[in-house]
Amino acid sequence: MAIEQNEIRYLNAPSIEVKKKKYCRFKKSGIKYIDYRDPEFLKKFLNEQGRILPRRITGTSLKYQRRVAQAVKRARHLALLPFVTDLMNTK
């Protein structure tokens, strides 16, 4: 009962990950204005260090990514969001 060298066995069946299509949540929801005074909403577009997530990760269109970036910068200037942090709660 020796296993051949080129034969691979798995305990669990290998799962095939299906990538979900990215979409712009602003176009889908019909959001026209991104409010810089809503830090909980803007935290969805920041990583743990407080940096703005790129479009390729969030799926946001270019038009709304620019508006998100501007809103985050305004919120930082008014001290609603931190410029830098060790770990930010993104819940």
Word description of this protein:
This protein has helices at residues 25-29, 39-42, 55-58, 62-77. The chain is mostly helical. It has a domain at 25-77: Irregular (30s Ribosomal Protein S18), CATH 4.10.640. The longest helix is centred in the C-terminal third of the chain and has 16 residues, at 62-77.
Secondary-structure map with pairings?
Blueprint: H1 25-29, H2 39-42, H3 55-58, H4 62-77
Order of helices and strands: HHHH
Task: Say which CATH homologous superfamily of the domain at 25-77 is assigned.
Answer: Ribosomal protein S18
Low-confidence stretches: none
Content of β-strand: under 5%
Q: For this structure, what is the CATH class of the domain at 25-77?
A: Few Secondary Structures
Structural class: mainly alpha
Tell me the CATH architecture of the domain at 25-77: Irregular
Taking the sheet with the most strands, its summary is: none
> What is the helix tally?
4
C-alpha Rg (nearest Å): 20 Å
Percent range of helical residues = 25-40%
